[in-house]
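User: I'm writing a short methods note and want a consistent example. For Single-stranded DNA-binding protein, I'll paste the sequence; you return only the structure tokens, no commentary, since I'll be parsing the reply automatically.
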Amino acid sequence: MNSVQLIGRLTRDPEVRYTASQMAVATFTIAINRPVKSGEEQKADFPRITVFGRQAENCEKYLNKGNRVAIEGRIQTGSYQNKNGDTVYTTDVVASRVEFLESRNAAQRSSEQQRQPAGRTDQRPASRPAETQMDMTGIPPAFEEIEDDVPF
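Assistant:
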């Protein structure tokens, strides 16, 4: 079985090129933190992701450096000869599915919060529109509990 699922953040904007048959091919790299023992320095892996077709075009259109994504796909290895005649081995993740885990605005807010000085939390909006406010359970106030019995 050759199946992989990854969640990480883009290290750069996706690059799209087109094949001779006009199929879009997007490539980008994501950063994935490795589990570490307490007290150890954080380490990360940076797998290269390849996406084809309409999904590749959507990645170019909607993803930017720093966006959090979930990738589902397979590992593919290959090799080529570089200019010096040396064989270079490659390992890529060929994505069958790319899920955008946050909007562009959320990524921008996240990067801005990471840049603000420690201890400053006063830059959050005072309130959100009523339709997006949620109580402590994470349920929007417009949600009404169903009183009827569920038929399953």
